[in-house]
Specification:
Layout: E1 2-7, H1 15-25, E2 28-33, H2 44-48
Parallel strand pairs: 1-2
Length: about 50
Amino acid sequence: MHVLFLHGAFPAQFGQLALELTRRYGWHCSFLVEDLSICPTPSPDMLKH
């Protein structure tokens, strides 16, 4: 399964959900954001998976 999250900022409230889906089910998660300048820095774990 590959999940695409569309949101104005990454990781926002979906970062932990994507990480859990990856860890628990092995799903691939991608994010499409509107503006990188407003995005908080994702954790290393979020980028690794």
